[in-house]
Amino acid sequence: MLTPLALIAKRWTPTPRTLQRxxxxxxxxxxxxxxxxxxxxxxxxGLGCDTWPKCTSESLITTPEQGIHxxxxxxxxxxxxVLSAAVGWAIxxxxxxxxxxxxxxxxxxxxxxxxxxxxxxxxxSVLSGLNPWTVAGHFLAANALLAVAVITWQxxxxxxxxxxxxxxxxxxxxSWAIVVATVLLLVLGTSVTGSGKHAGDKSEVPRMPWDWxxxxxxxxxxxxxxxxxxxxxxxxxxxxxxxxxxxxxxxxLLIVLVAQGVVGxxxxxxxxxxxxxxxxxxxxxxxxxxxxxxxxxxxxxxxEETPEVPAQPDAPLTTAV
Length: 321
Ligand code: HEM
Known about the structure:
Blueprint: H1 4-11, H2 16-42, H3 67-95, H4 102-127, H5 132-156, E1 164-165, H6 169-195, H7 212-239, H8 244-269, H9 274-297, E2 299-300
Helix pairs in contact: 2-3, 2-5, 2-9, 3-4, 4-5, 5-6, 5-9, 6-7, 6-9, 7-8, 8-9
The structure holds protoporphyrin IX containing FE (HEM).
Protoporphyrin IX containing FE (HEM) binds at residues 38, 136, 139, 185-186, 189-190, 192-193, 196, 198, 216, 219-220, 223, 257, 260-261, 264-265, 267-268, 272, 277, 280-281, 284, 287.
Membrane topology: Multi-pass membrane protein
Keywords: Cell membrane, Disulfide bond, Heme biosynthesis, Iron, Membrane, Metal-binding, Oxidoreductase, Transmembrane, Transmembrane helix
InterPro entries: COX15/CtaA_fam, COX15/CtaA_HemeA_synthase
C-alpha cells in the first residue's frame, strides 16, 4: 500500500530549483527561530506564556492579561509551525524526486525529529522556570537543527555519487578542527549567558555556578582559537590552489568571524545590552553556517547518471552525507 508521501511522489516531481528552495527555507527558518528565541529571552518574555504546550492552563493562545510578553513568546511558538511547514515541504520535495533520493529524504526527516526535540526542550525550559541549563540545551539543539538544514540544502545542490575530496587530506582535517572548535565556542558561549545577567532573563533564576568574567574570558580564548584556524585555512587554501568557491567560503567565514568578535567585545565592555546580544546570536548562526559551508565545499558529490524511474513505495532509508 502507498503511504501519503508515496502518493504525493507519484503525482508530483519537484524541479531541482523547488527542491533547493524547500531546503533553503528550512535554513532560513532555523536562523529565524534562533534569533526570535533570543528575543524571547532578552525581552524577559520566557514565561510570557505560563505553561506548555498551552499558553495558560485555560487557553491555547495568549490572553490580553499576558500583554506584550505573552505576544512575544506566543509569536515564537507560532513560528515553530512555519518552521515545521518548511521542513515538511523539504521532506515532501526530497521524497518526490525522481529517482527517489533516499539519503536526502533521510536528512530531511532528521530535521523533523530535531524540530520535535526542540519543541519538547522549549517546553521543558518553560516548565523548569527558564533554568539556564535547559535554555542552553535548547539553544544548542536549535544549532544542531541548523547544521542538518545546511547539510540538506547543500545535498539538494549536488548528486548522490560517493563524496570526492577537492583538497588534500590535511586541509580537510583542518576544516574538521574548525568545526570541532566552533562547537566548543558555541557551548562556551552558552556558559557565559547561563552565568550572566541574561540567563533566562529572570533575576530569580539560579545561574550556572561559575564566575561570569572567567566564562567570558574562556569563551573569547576559544573565539581566538577558531580565528587562528580560520586564518590558517585561508592561507592553506591559497597554497594548495584550491577551487575558487572554497576560497570564497573561507573569506566569508573570516568576515563573519571578525564581525562577531567585535560585537562580542563591545557587548562585554558595555554590560551586555539586549540589542547587541541579539545581534551576537544572529551572527553566531551565520558563523555556524559559514563553518559548515566551508567544510562541505571541500568535497563534492557529482550527479550520477540514472535512467528515469517511476515513484517507488517507502522502504528503509540509507546513505551517507
Ligand atoms: C567570534 C566568535 C564568537 C561566537 C560564534 C560566539 C557565540 C556566542 C554564543 C553562541 C553565545 C551564547 C548565546 C546564548 O546562549 O543565547 C555567546 C554569548 C556571549 N558572548 Fe560570544 N561568541 C563569539 C565571540 C565572542 C567574543 C570575542 C566575546 C568577547 C568577550 C564574546 C562575548 C560574549 C558574551 C559577553 C556573551 C553573553 C551574552 C549574554 O549575556 O547573553 N563572544 N557568544
